[in-house]
Amino acid sequence: SIGDLLNQRYLETSPPASLSTNTNVNKISKKNWNTKTTKESIGGFRWNVIQSIEMGVIRAFFVTPWIHHWYPLMDKLSPGKSMQNVLGRVFIDQSCGTPVTITLVFLSSSVLRLKPFPSFFIHRMKTHFFSTWISGLKFWPFVHSINFSVVPQPHRPLFAHFASVYWNAVLSFHAHSTNSLPVTSTSTSTTSSTGKRYVDIDG
Question: Rounded distance, CA 19 to CA 24, Å?
Fold first, then answer.
């Protein structure tokens, strides 16, 4: 099924059963296991085709429609070409638009991957939302300062799509991070409504 395909990355990066206990040693072992199974044999990270397809679907059917409605709205909220208006649109986008985009990606990814809902989505938001938002604050203000001041309004979503090559990689990393692994027993875990538990492992 589609869910099985989208979960392929989780199956590939899951550590063996011998690493399932919750100890500091095994946390390190799990982290090393995930690192080894997500890298090429000769340097660099492995390209996950299924994950790329999933992010393409999310971008096309969830993020793009939102952007095409959001950008004209920003122009109405902060109209004009002065630097004050440009910075106003940047502020509005980073304080309102980016959180919505992150939420859309996490939500649609959880649904497409057939994860326990809403427990997995809520857990993902708690563990990765703010770190993803901060990553965006280091990138988008500069990009949108150019986009909102130089690029004509009808072409701004297209400019943002090109700039999103890096941003999509950031979103994909946080949306598919393996630091939420199902375990059978742990003292530092989150229990979902389905009885599954998730332990935080930095990956």
Answer: 11
The token duo for 31 is 């982290």
**Phi first, then psi: what are they for 189, rounded to 5°?**
-130, 165
Spatial distance between the Cα atoms of 199 and 203, rounded to a whole number of angstroms: 12
Q: Hey, what are 60's tokens?
A: 């096309």
> Distance between CA 102 and CA 133 in Å, rounded?
8
Convert the pLDDT of each residue in 123-167 to its tens digit. Answer: 999 999 999 999 899 999 999 999 999 999 889 999 998 988 888
* Top-confidence residue, 66 or 182: 66
The CA distances from residue 53 to 59, 93, 141, in Å, are 10, 26, 28
Residue 21 phi, psi dihedral angles, 5° rounding: -80, 155
Cα 78–Cα 79–Cα 83 angle in degrees, nearest 5: 80
Question: Identity (one letter) of the amino acid at 159?
Answer: F
Q: What would you report as the CA-atom Rg of the chain, rounded to the nearest whole angstrom?
A: 19
Q: Does residue 181 sit in helix, strand or coil?
A: strand
pLDDT tens readout for residues 22-62? 544 454 444 444 444 443 433 555 777 888 888 889 989 99
Quick one: DSSP state of residue 39? B
CA distance 171 to 173: 5
